[in-house]
Predict the structure.
Amino acid sequence: MPDQVGSLLPYVLSATGVGILGSVIALFWDPKAKARSAIQHFAAGAVLAAIASNVIPEVERMGTLAGVISGFVAGGLIMIGLKWVVVRFEREEKHGRGLPVGLAAAAAVDTFLDGVIIGAGFSVNPQLGTLLVIALGLELFFLTLSVGVEFREGKLETWKSLAVTGGVACMLLLGASAASFFLAGASQATLAVVLAFGAAALIYLIAEELLVETIQEEESVFSTLMLFTGFLILMVLKLIEHG
């Protein structure tokens, strides 16, 4: 088990570092609608490619019908529940209760689940884990950037903003390490359930976090191009791995 955790550690540390970088950049850069949309679309394309070309095929190969359905349904219900909690927090914050605590808490939970998905991916094979690290590292960069900007607009002290957003980024490492430890020696059917859970969580991520706000705010051909670019790059990386 220590060997398995150690093998993924350099990859996850790199993705965590990208998340911390996003939190640092948020201290002095507030991306406008077009820049934010381009980043989100690119990350969405990468995550979509990871689901379509890597996660789902492995789930089909390893899983049983009951296991896959139960994992996917559980993932969907948990993400819907998370959204419900976030919406309640946002309503309270709009009534003058201060900083976006709900956003930060949701980001931490999201990032922990992303780490679990990465850990499960490495438990299946290193290639799957590596591609998930790339896709979810891009998503984490945008997430910490967004949370950091929200805190800056809320006049939170710099060190506190970095502490919170850095903590969010570190949840990726925690989730990946925990999943790798507990899934060591797990059966293929069990791994398929976890990956099905992860697929539902990632679909939520694409539909509810990466795309919906920017689609509402602006229309850009460049953003659409970035969606396909993110997808293509992950597809090419997979083909190179198998080449």
